[in-house]
Amino acid sequence: MRSVKRFIYKQIDKLFLGGCSSYNSLQVRKSCRSKLQARESFKKNNIPHSQGVIFFNPWTAYRFAQEHGFPLVIKPNVGGFSRGSHFPITTYGQLWKAAFGVKLWWPFSVVEKYVEGANYRVTAANGKIMSVIQRYPPFVDGDGHSSISRLIDKENAIRRKMNLFPVIHPIPKDGRITAFLRKKNLTLASVPKAKERVTLFNRIALAPGGVIRTIDKDTIPIENKELFLKVLNSFQARILGIDAIFEKGIEKSYRSQKCIFLEVNSRPYLKMHDFPRYGKREDLSDFYKELDKNKASDSDIF
Fold first, then answer.
1. HSE of 62, CA atoms in CB hemisphere, 13 A
2. The CA-based dihedral angle spanning residues 76, 78, 84, 89, taken in that order and rounded to the nearest 10 degrees
3. 165 lies in some domain
4. CA 111 to centroid of chain Cα atoms
5. Is the predicted pLDDT of residue 9 greater than 50, yes or no?
6. pLDDT of residue 6
7. Is residue 114 left, alpha or beta, with left meaning phi > 0 and alpha meaning psi from -120 to 50?
8. Per-residue pLDDT, 15
9. pLDDT tens digit string along 77-96?
10. Residue 216 burial (CB < 10 Å; 0-12/13-18/19+)?
11. Total domains present in the chain
């Protein structure tokens, strides 16, 4: 039976978790597979998180919107890489479309209040803050004379020169990008003003061309660090990738701003930390050496 579980997990790993780390025990991974589990832990440990509910029936999401208003976000209860997420939802039409569309990824889903702010992945390991990165959706900055298409070409050339591929992806000019631009009355031929930032897709993920910026850990207030380590300890994990949004930035105390913790990842994708588009590449070798000690014997079982 154990060999069967290993085979199944290997296939899941190959299809959905390629390149993700595997340092936590099966018990830890089982404790934080879903967003519901994360939300329950956040509530129990007084970790700031967005108001929301888990739903199977889309009518539940509709009632939540009636009670709490917009904007909202809907996402699968289980999953990563922003797959199946819909945000910001600002109308009932968008709500119904998202509430049914999210079912393609998982039968149970989350609807919660959407908070505007900077999106971060904080990796905590062995009682310390390992790395902090800010995550961006794909975007280009206008120069006043180049089209969006040309700006994408320039950005992709920079990424190629920086040797960011294949971990960081080139920005595509596919249907996802053109459809998102269309919602803002833009096309690939549009010419943004100088210094005008044009977001090309809403998902903060690498696949559609998102990028990361490393954050100097010394600039983060101690109370913010303690909050992330509190999350790590609450799951008794060796390592977690913790996603959070800070309205004014992680360099300011969470007590002085809106801040929500989104989810935890027991198998964080660590490769991206070595390929920042902005900021300095960090030397994380000491963390890896420590993590490689005493690996969990059941790390290859789902």
1. 8
2. 30
3. yes
4. 16
5. no
6. 54
7. beta
8. 47
9. 887 656 778 889 999 999 99
10. exposed
11. 2
Average pLDDT (148-165) is 98
Q: Which segments of 47-199 does DSSP mark as H helices, in order?
A: 58-68, 92-101, 148-161, 175-183
Contacts (Cβ under 8 Å, ≥6 apart) of 130: 123, 124, 239, 284, 287
Q: What is the CATH number of the domain that holds 89?
A: 3.30.1490.20
CB burial readout 16-25, b (16+ within 10 A) else e: ebeebbbbbb
Residue 272: C-alpha distances to residues 57, 162, 186, 227, 242 (Å): 36, 14, 30, 23, 14
State the pLDDT confidence band at 185, using cuts at 50, 70 and 90: very high
Place of tokens 């660090």: 225
pLDDT of residue 34: 86
This prediction has a pTM of 0.89
Structure tokens at 163: 């040797």
Per-residue pLDDT tens for 239-279? Answer: 999 999 999 999 999 999 999 999 999 999 999 999 999 99
Q: Are both 148 and 100 inside the same structural domain?
A: no
Q: What is the mean pLDDT of the chain?
A: 91
Last residue of a domain, one of 151, 173, 201: 201
Question: How far is it, in rounded angstroms, from Cα 193 to Cα 191?
Answer: 7
Burial class (CB in 10 A: 0-12, 13-18, 19+), 158: exposed
Clarify whether residues 96 and 142 are in a common domain: no
Within a domain: 223: no
C-beta neighbour count of 136 within 10 angstroms: 18
| Residue 56 belongs to domain spanning | 51-114
Is 118 buried (19+), middle (13-18) or exposed (0-12) by CB count in 10 A?
middle
Question: Is residue 269 in a domain?
Answer: no
User: Is 252 inside a domain boundary?
Assistant: no
What pLDDT was estimated at residue 97?
95
Q: Select from 177, 201, 225 the last residue of a domain.
A: 201
